[in-house]
């Protein structure tokens, strides 16, 4: 058997198995925006981690927050993202009861040589900028979407400002101030905030002066992530799409196509039956 050690002056030098895959980062949101008091999870997906360790560092003061499953800060609002899957490649940093002072960059780092790292920016926005009136709610893309098992669900929900709605909204309170709007994501009628233990779920909402866009990201999807995804904005409206989780994109596409064809044939048969009945009555 080949020995991977080289002896120099009676001291062995060991090398990693050359067939071992190098670790790499998966795609995650690099900027997340929340309001004070919310709970946020900064995601870090690492493939081929091996025996290496994932650490989260606050770049403003180089404070090590977590390393592996251990928390190194006395601030108990910070912790590793809970997960029920020991083989999960998601290494999230959870921050509870977010404060304005938490705004800044956070670094997900691997103890490799050289070090591998990605930065995630957390923005805690003044609530007044979110108290904007919007009109209409839509989720981008088709009503039925396919995601391969192990892939990433990415959905974008948006609404635009209506000046008419602005006036109505201001009159909806006795003090003349607009009501705060909340973007709520749910899957099969269960709020996404109730699925924190699942891990790998991120919601990034960008509140602008003429539009709000909320992006939902669900990583490492399984069959349990299949279902109806709904985006709702208080007093404005909602929209939903159905997400299929498949092993092969062609399988569900064929099923959808077959279902559509079957529906078309049924409609045509009903149409011709009605025409036949009408002709019998006329003649």
TrEMBL record:
<feature type="domain" description="Ig-like">
    <location>
        <begin position="133"/>
        <end position="242"/>
    </location>
</feature>
<dbReference type="InterPro" id="IPR007110">
    <property type="entry name" value="Ig-like_dom"/>
</dbReference>
<feature type="domain" description="Ig-like">
    <location>
        <begin position="23"/>
        <end position="121"/>
    </location>
</feature>
<dbReference type="InterPro" id="IPR013783">
    <property type="entry name" value="Ig-like_fold"/>
</dbReference>
<dbReference type="Pfam" id="PF07679">
    <property type="entry name" value="I-set"/>
</dbReference>
<dbReference type="InterPro" id="IPR013098">
    <property type="entry name" value="Ig_I-set"/>
</dbReference>
<dbReference type="InterPro" id="IPR003598">
    <property type="entry name" value="Ig_sub2"/>
</dbReference>
<dbReference type="InterPro" id="IPR036179">
    <property type="entry name" value="Ig-like_dom_sf"/>
</dbReference>
<dbReference type="InterPro" id="IPR003599">
    <property type="entry name" value="Ig_sub"/>
</dbReference>
<dbReference type="InterPro" id="IPR037448">
    <property type="entry name" value="Zig-8"/>
</dbReference>
<protein>
    <submittedName>
        <fullName>Titin</fullName>
    </submittedName>
</protein>
<dbReference type="GO" id="GO:0032589">
    <property type="term" value="C:neuron projection membrane"/>
</dbReference>
<dbReference type="GO" id="GO:0050808">
    <property type="term" value="P:synapse organization"/>
</dbReference>
